[in-house]
Amino acid sequence: MHQRVIYRLQRLLDDALPPEMEPVQTVNMLVSKKDYYIPDLVILPKDLPDSDGLMFSPKDMLLAVEVGSPSTKLRDEDVKVKAYAKAGIPFYWRVEPDEGPTLYVYELNGDTYGPPTAYKAGTQTTLSKPFPLALDPAQLLE
Question: Which SUPFAM superfamilies match (predicted)?
Fold first, then answer.
């Protein structure tokens, strides 16, 4: 189910993004000199120079997405929220498949994310930031 959600979200994002941006799965994101994370999905500029092909800077990321599972829930809800905010990623989305699914949208406010807005399955939602996107989170499991 985890990979299905990522695939479906990537397709929705690819259709909604401006032509200069693209969704990319499982890239290494360097958040400090010694720490890195591997988000399930990120939005990057298409013309981003691939310096070494191994690590990407969070300053180039518009959005990081994590799809939850029982084994990653605490890390996705706490550790990564703090780390991604500290790294300056403007938007963080967390998808919880076991909640319908539910999409949690976080927006950077200074050096922390504000409280997330939850979008539940069965409700058509139109997001305006970081780019226009219409979806019902239920689409992520279809």
Answer: Restriction endonuclease-like (SSF52980)
CATH annotation of 2-141: 3.90.1570.10
Angle subtended at Cα 138 by Cα 122 and Cα 1, rounded to the nearest 5 degrees = 150
Asked if omega into 130 is within 30° of 0 (cis), the reply is yes
* Reported confidence tier of residue 55, pLDDT bands at 50, 70, 90: confident
7: tokens are 């695939």
Q: Where are the domains of the chain?
A: 2-141
Q: Is this prediction's pTM over 0.90?
A: yes
Q: Extract the runs of DSSP E, i.e. beta strands, from the chain.
A: 21-25, 29-30, 36-37, 41-45, 63-67, 91-96, 102-109, 112-113, 117-120, 125-127, 133-135
**Residues, the chain, total?**
142
Spatial separation of the C-alpha atoms in residues 38 and 56, rounded to whole Å? 10
For residue 5, the tally of other CB atoms under 10 A from its CB is: 24
